[in-house]
Amino acid sequence: MGHLKIATFNINGIHARLPSLLAWLEREQPDVACLQELKAVDESFPVAELHAAGYGAVWQGQKSWNGVAILAKGSDPVEVRRGLPGDAADTQSRYIEAAVAGVLVACLYLPNGNPQPGPKFEYKLAWFERLIRHASTLYASGHPVVLAGDFNVVPTDDDIYNPRSWLKDALLQPASRECYRQLLEQGWTDALRTRYPDTRIYTFWDYFRQHWQKDSGLRIDHLLLSRSLAQHMRDAGVDKWVRGEPHASDHAPAWVEIEMGAEAEARTKTTPAARARRRASGA
Length: 283
Hints:
Layout: E1 2-10, H1 18-28, E2 32-36, H2 47-52, E3 55-60, E4 68-73, E5 78-82, E6 95-100, E7 103-109, H3 119-140, E8 145-150, H4 174-185, E9 189-190, H5 191-195, E10 221-225, H6 227-230, E11 233-238, E12 254-260, H7 262-269, H8 272-281
Parallel strand pairs: 1-2, 7-8
Antiparallel strand pairs: 1-12, 2-4, 3-4, 5-6, 6-7, 8-10, 9-10, 11-12
Helix pairs in contact: 3-4
Binding site for Mg(2+): 10, 37, 150, 152, 250-251
Domain Endonuclease/exonuclease/phosphatase: 7-251
Family: Belongs to the DNA repair enzymes AP/ExoA family.
């Protein structure tokens, strides 16, 4: 099927930003789009408008806050899981999984955690620990998986314009960064950082102190690839222009492009690990 472009976009209110969302989908044509912060109940999700734009969707809304969705161009995502396992009492709409084009797509909106210390930061870390446990099972499955979303963590000081004024923020705390490091240690590939190892690249610019105009940004929206997907990553980037549009979200969409189909599959089968698996299975 050629290339699969998977994007993540914290929309910061799908009703307020629907024109912006539709303009981005039309211009950039992602095959899969993970959305966070819908700030809308399930019944008001703009499914008709998205269908008219050529996208099917699964979503989990919530009144006033949170909310996540997965869009697929020309097809309906097949929902696999709604909600992050590990805490039956957690009612916040922050996680949804769906199968699209042979890839398991996990869309997540990790808690912000401010103010810290306090119960909101404790909830953030507990949610992160649940994500680490669940992600471990996804990675171990061997399936092509992408974890995409607003992780609300700045992984290193290279992912922020200047850490000094953010030192007390939950996004930069050592415990938050340690959780992200533990996640990567499972084997996930951070698509943006892999594509731009030495470049400051941001996905979020808050509305204050002219941070957008000064390019004072943070990288908190991430696309983490399982091994089989990382092998076929062609490109990754940020659609920065979206942040400069009128009435924009404070995030810009981040994306990764994966080579899919017979050509990529043929290359995978020639790796030593693949040959060993075929021998073990008698193929």
